[in-house]
Amino acid sequence: MPDHNHDPLAWWREARFGLFIHWGIYSVPAGFWKGQPIPSLGEWIMHNAKIPLEEYAPLAQQFNPAKFNAEEWVSVAAKAGMKYLVITAKHHDGFAMFHSPSNPYNIVDATPYGHDVMKDLAEACARHGLRMCFYYSQDQDWAAEGASGHWEEVQDKGWHGHKPDPERFAAYLESKVKPQLRELLTQYGPIGLIWFDTPVAITKEQSQMLKEYVHSLQPDCLVSGRVGHELGDYGSLGDNMIPAGPVVGDWETPATLNDTWGFKSDDHNWKSVQDLLILLVDLTSKGVNYLLNVGPTSEGLIPQPSIDLLLAIGRWMDVNSEAIYGTQPNPWPFEFRWGRVTAKQNKLFLLFYEWPAMVLGRVHEDSNRPGGWAGQHELLGLRNRVKRAYLLADPENALPFIQDGDRVTISLPGVAPDPLVSVVVLDFEDALDVDTSIYQQADGTVTLPGYLAEMLKGPDSGMALSRNGMVSGWKDTASKLQWQFKLLTPGTFTVKVVLGSPYHRRPPDGGHVLRLTAGEATVSGAVTCDEQVQSPRAQYFPEYAGTLGQITLDAPGTITVALEAEQIAGEAGITLAAVQLVPA
Ligand code: H79
After folding, report:
1. Phi, psi at residue 204, to the nearest 5°?
2. What is the pLDDT of residues 348-364, one digit of tens each?
3. For atom 25 of ligand 1, which residue has the closest CA?
4. Which residues contact 271 (CB under 8 A, 6 or more apart)?
5. Would the pLDDT of 60 be above 70?
6. How far, in Å, is the centroid of ligand 1 from the Cα of 482?
7. Ligand 1 pocket: which residues have CB below 6 Å?
8. Alpha-carbon distance 347 to 328, whole Å?
9. How far, in Å, is the centroid of ligand 1 from the Cα of 44?
10. Among 98, 308, 332, 463, which is 20 to 30 Å from 456 by CA?
């Protein structure tokens, strides 16, 4: 009998957090070529420094990772709370980091080390309960004739836009990719997924063929979205892309701890533990898996700063992983300023980035808790009857709360249980039921995200909702955005516009003239992007806030907001993350 309940994605949805490992012979030069630092990604050094294959391939003779210890690597991942491990079996440079009988350019046949590290890693993963998975660059292969990016063909032009000859590309898939996929899927036991990358030359038929080929060898092995043509078993967001809002379906974001994937000896730009926890929590609240990368050295060591960061995440996970594993995304379609929300059956997890401060007029005075109940948090829009509230760090002790309609007021200790991200759990009886309309939050702010706007497009408008959750390509004054929200407390508000950038690591064009109409009130002005949003999400794709002016809203009720563009600066148009009304 076939098992109709069997879902090959079940483990992946439960896991939420995985370790990415970029390891190859590029770890020998480690970002330097002939004494010169080579900018950008470490694993791209062959391409970026225009190294001919006859100079690059001999790096294999210097690759001798005597300190490699699979048990140590996997135990760090396990301690971090990661549930799967994806390692570069072959990156764009074409060098196989596993024993490949079909192609001698591999770790066993071409290095003095001569040992198949993937065997050790697969065994260590099995011991620690992690899924062993492989990254495999199916499209670019700078060492294989016919593949995209082949070093001889892109010496002058650079890889971008390189389209190999279709017949020779097809021959490359048959002669190198398929034999190596067969090796990866037959030599190491069960494989969780194959992480394909950079589909540019591959046709839809070829993507489908590779997917079916993987499934024919291991039916439960997943295929990443970058197999091409949206044919993956799950979707892959951009490198380091943190969406501004919820994403429908199964998605994953691969991300770095510093600014490279493969080891670079001069990249010390490590993220903080706080930033990493916020990214983990943010992605989880949007239903996106977090695949976090380390780049080991040519000696076989994960850099110590990476280990320290992973172990710090692990200490947080030891207490709080229930709010991560197997959770459903935030049931509300908007983000909160104080943190994020995840859900699981009859539980809601409130993950605070900012612990509620001391408040006057405490709701619960009669406590024998040391220090009393110093803070309060108000949550609006939960229709379930809350049975119990508690800190995930202290589940034995209930937190006092009052529920009045769909307003829950929870009293909290003055000191956050975790200095970085603290979790409050709300237990209730029946299926989760929340108000998904947009309404003013308890702190008085109203956030109108781009992804919740109705797009009223003019003729030939390029305005669209991008995969990162922002409205982009808004280049015409005939288009506008519209929202409706519930105002609870009238007053005067500062109108802020948060813009994304169409440019990588560069600010957007400033100087758009926008007009916002809210009910009877209207305000217009030029948006100068002088305030860069400081958030871990905006590290790679910057966001800027501009102030349009102030509006006064006199009466509570449902308000319609329209955002129009009177003048648009620059070629790329407006990229809009959100409009915010902040009590003045
Ligand atoms: O494996 C990691 C990257 O090497 C790979 N995907 C992640 C998971 C990747 N392949 N292509 N890209 C990312 C796009 C990269 C483009 C760039 Fe460049 C490489 C920007 C800088 C270096 C090419 C070379 C464009 C400019 C220089």
Report:
1. -60, -40
2. 999 999 998 755 545 55
3. 160
4. 257, 258, 279, 309, 536, 539
5. yes
6. 37
7. 40-41, 43-44, 47-48, 159-160, 197-198, 239, 254, 261
8. 10
9. 7
10. 332
pLDDT at 366: 47
pLDDT, mean of residues 48-76: 97
Indicate which residue's Cα is closest to atom 3 of ligand 1. Answer: 261
Residue 524, phi then psi, degrees to nearest 5: -140, 160
Using the predicted structure, report yes or no on whether residue 547 has a pLDDT greater than 80: yes
Torsion from C-alpha of 336, 338, 339, 341, nearest 10 degrees: -60
| Residue nearest atom 12 of ligand 1, based on CA coordinates | 198
Q: Is the dihedral of CA 228, 233, 235, 239 positive or negative?
A: negative
Q: Judge residue 104's burial from the number of C-beta atoms within 10 Å of its C-beta, 0-12 exposed, 13-18 middle, 19 or more buried.
A: exposed
Query: CA 404, CA 399: separation in Å to the nearest integer?
Result: 16
- Ligand 1 atom with the shortest distance to the CA of 41: 22
Q: Is the pLDDT of residue 164 over 90?
A: yes
Q: Measuring from atom 1 of ligand 1, which residue has the nearest CA? A: 261
Q: How far is the CA of 4 from the centre of ligand 1 (A)?
A: 40
In terms of residues, how long is the chain?
584
Q: Supply the pTM of this predicted model.
A: 0.95
The whole-angstrom separation of Cα 558 and Cα 563 is 17
Q: For residue 3, is pLDDT > 80? A: no
285: its two tokens: 């609240």
- Compute the distance between CA of residue 362 and CA of residue 294 in angstroms, rounded to an integer: 46
Strands (E), 1-109: 17-21, 32-33, 36-37, 84-90
Supply 417's token pair.
């249980």
Ligand 1 atom nearest 261 alpha carbon: 2
| Confidence class for position 536, pLDDT limits 50, 70, 90 | confident
Sort 155 into a burial class: Cβ within 10 Å, 0-12 / 13-18 / 19+.
exposed
Beta-bridged to residue 255, according to DSSP, are 292
Farthest CA pair distance, the chain: 79
Tokens of 380: 């609006």
> Which atom of ligand 1 is least distant from the CA of 137?
1
The answer to whether residues 177 and 194 touch, using CB atoms and an 8 Å cutoff, is: no
Which 3 state secondary structure label does DSSP give 215?
A: helix
Residue 434 is given by DSSP the state B
275-279: long-range contacts at Cβ-Cβ below 8 A with a sequence spacing of 24 or more? 275/536, 275/539, 276/309, 276/313, 276/536, 277/313, 277/316, 277/420, 277/421, 278/353, 278/421, 278/535, 278/536, 278/537, 279/242, 279/255, 279/536, 279/537
Nearest CA-CA partner of 575 in 461, 452, 446, 464: 464
Q: CA-to-CA distance for 367 and 123, rounded, in angstroms?
A: 53
Give the separation between CA 352 and CA 338, rounded to whole angstroms: 6
Rounded to the nearest angstrom, the distance between the alpha carbon of 475 and the centre of ligand 1 is 29
Ligand 1: which of 41, 193, 197 to mutate, most ligand atoms within 8 Å of CB?
41
Collapsing DSSP to helix, strand or coil, 181 comes out as helix
CB 207 within 8 A of CB 213: no
CA angle 219, 11, 429 (to 5 degrees): 140
> Which of these, 429, 548, 569, 421, lies nearest to 494 by C-alpha position?
548
